[in-house]
Amino acid sequence: MQAIMVHMGPSRPKALVTAAVRGPGLDLLGQLADLVLDSWLEQPALRIYDAEQLAARVADEGTSIVIVESDRCAGPLYEQPLLAVVSCRGDPTNVDVAGATEADVPVLRAPGRNADAVAELAVGLLFAATRQIVAADRDVRTGEIYRDGTIPYQRFRAWEVAGRTAGLVGLGAVGRALRWRLRGLGMEVLAYDPYAEDATCGLEELLERSDVVSLHAPVTEETRGMIGAVQFEQMRDGVVFLNPARAALHDTEALVAALSSGKVGAAGLDHFEGEFLDPAHPLTAFPTVVLTPHIGGATYDTETNHTRTVADDLCRLLAGARPRHIVNPEVLDRQAR
């Protein structure tokens, strides 16, 4: 979006930016406000502000806009004279939206920012798990190419994905980005999502028909633990189970049991409760399980995407127009009265 005439009152706004930002959107942000750039990803150690710390930082810097990714926006932050809270996430779970609304603070978000990134990782998990790429790499590095008197061609034989059926549980931005990629690999793709008109498959049917089941739903009361022992039992024998979304969507103990019985033949996971998996956890003992530490969205393109999205919407907001991705539009309705 081209920069437009912005009505900002007598002084130019100042924005505290603790999210990682880059690309053309950063140039637009610089036209809209004086920027205090302090990315949480550029710190020597993990730094995520709680609400009190963020409020203190805003007060010290004299900023009226906050652009965050992981910092907690709540309580004392809304005591500051804010023009907007901007969360560079598709689902602004780090923001107390109700509190912002009560304080008349617009909240902006960046939906779909990491859809391609997560979809690409899901494809990577699929091949890593089914072709045992990680285990094969380890054998080469440790000089165990002919481990236990076998040859690699014996140990690592696998089925190809072309001609197989994949079932996507959730057809939001990530599910859609993965769907066309899997079709491009020659797979038939089913999808279950009660909120998507083009997802016409029921969950039970999807589980029964799919050779690969991949989860892409948000965590809600409706979806929490939606894949458990009953659902694993409904899947095909030897199914490949992928969850590049959130661990809360499946029952981990049930997954371990399904892997132990052979019901689940391989799995790829990119998230664990508490953002940590004990190295002694049973999941680490399965050679056909690939585990990554929540890196699905970790691409520079994700940062470019969310910067562009929030900059465009902040431009609209400051110009008196309605942002495309505002979480609490009722704030603008009240302000317009």
Topology:
Blueprint: E1 14-17, H1 24-32, E2 34-37, H2 51-61, E3 65-68, E4 84-87, H3 97-102, E5 107-108, H4 115-130, H5 133-141, H6 152-155, E6 165-169, H7 173-184, E7 188-192, H8 203-209, E8 212-215, H9 229-234, E9 239-243, H10 252-261, E10 264-269, E11 289-291, H11 300-318, H12 330-336
Parallel strand pairs: 1-2, 1-3, 3-4, 4-5, 6-7, 6-8, 8-9, 9-10, 10-11
> For the CA atoms, what is the radius of gyration?
23 Å
CATH homology superfamily of the largest domain: NAD(P)-binding Rossmann-like Domain
Order of helices and strands: EHEHEEHEHHHEHEHEHEHEEHH
- CATH topology of the largest domain: the name is Rossmann fold
Mean pLDDT: 95
With strands numbered from the N-terminus, the spatial order across the biggest sheet is: 7-6-8-9-10-11
Poorly predicted ranges: 1-8
Treating each run of at least 4 consecutive H or I residues as one helix, how many helices?
12
**Count of structural domains:** 2
The first-to-last residue Cα distance is 28 Å
Helix content range? 25-40%
Q: What is the highest CATH level, the class of the largest domain?
A: Alpha Beta
Largest sheet properties: 6 strands, parallel
SS strand fraction: 5-15%
Overall spatial form = elongated
Structure, explained:
It is a single chain. This protein has 337 residues and is an alpha/beta fold. It folds into two domains: 14-113 and 299-336, NAD(P)-binding Rossmann-like Domain (Rossmann fold), CATH 3.40.50.720; 115-291, NAD(P)-binding Rossmann-like Domain (Rossmann fold). The protein has helices at residues 24-32, 51-61, 97-102, 115-130, 133-141, 152-155, 173-184, 203-209, 229-234, 252-261, 300-318, 330-336, and strands at 14-17, 34-37, 65-68, 84-87, 107-108, 165-169, 188-192, 212-215, 239-243, 264-269, 289-291.
